[in-house]
Structures are given as C-alpha cells and as structure tokens.
Design brief:
- The two termini are 13 Å apart.
- 13% of the residues lie in helices and 39% in strands.
- By secondary structure, it is mainly β.
- The longest helix is centred in the first third of the chain and has 10 residues.
- The strands form 2 sheets. It has a 4-stranded mixed beta sheet, covered by helices on one side. A 4-stranded mixed beta sheet has the order 5-8-7-6, covered by helices on one side.
C-alpha cells in the first residue's frame, strides 16, 4: 500500500454525508454498518476523489461556526466544471477566483459546515508562486 495521509472526520450522520459527497463527485469506497441485520446505522465510510480519500465516522456534532476545525483542499483539473456540478448542492463561500499564490479556487461548505476548496493551478500562472506537491 502506498504511503498516504487520510483524514477521518467525525460527523453527525454518515449516511447523509455520503449522499452529499457523492452528489459533488466523490466516489464511495467502503462503509461499515452497525448491526446490518437489524437495519443498523452506517457508522463509518471512506470516499475517494481521484487519488485522495477521506473517511467519515459517526459521533461528530453539528456546528453553526463560520469555520470548522478541518478544511479539505481538493485538487481538480477544472474548477469551473466543478462549480457547475456543485450548483445547488453546496453553499458557495467564495465563487471561482484566482489567488495571489497562483491557484484558481472555489470554496464551499458541506452539510456539516466543513469548508472544501476545489483548486487548480491558474491557467496564466507560470507556476512560480504555485503550491508544488511532491511527486510520489
């Protein structure tokens, strides 16, 4: 298995979180259901987006805070395409914009109040100021 960091975020309702993330383009990898024979609750799930993934487990609390403890930064090929797919599925905090550090971003809030920033390298940036990730 390749080395990777996979965040696990506690949420109030894992099934609802799965539905939201699938609606915005994540793929369901796996789930765990307590007492499935009794119609039990999904208590854990892993979802993937490209090469990255995130896990969600039951037990988190909702929050009305402007920002939560964890943000997800999601690299994409086309932020504008993501904005069209998210239309109506997410609260947009910052519409598509270019940053001073060479990225083109869209910032939304998920159903649990966590921020997701979808980002691509800005087309006109030479990459000099862009965030570089190590190649694995």
């Amino acid at each position: 298995m390749p080395r990777a960091v996979v965040p696990m975020i506690r949420v109030p309702d894992v099934a609802a979180t799965i539905a939201w993330y699938r609606a915005v383009g994540f793929e369901l990898v796996d789930t765990w259901t307590e007492a499935p024979e009794d119609g039990g609750e999904i208590t854990w799930a892993e979802l993937a987006f490209g090469q990255g993934s995130v896990m969600f487990s039951v037990g988190g609390e909702g929050s009305g805070a402007a920002r939560r403890e964890v943000d997800l930064y999601v690299y994409v090929d086309d932020v504008t395409d993501v904005a069209h797919r998210l239309n109506g599925h997410a609260e947009v905090l910052e519409d598509v914009h270019e940053t001073f550090y060479g990225m083109r971003e869209l910032v939304v809030r998920d159903l649990n109040g966590f921020w997701l920033t979808f980002a691509q390298h800005a087309p006109d940036s030479a990459g000099a100021n862009a965030v570089q990730r190590p190649v694995t």
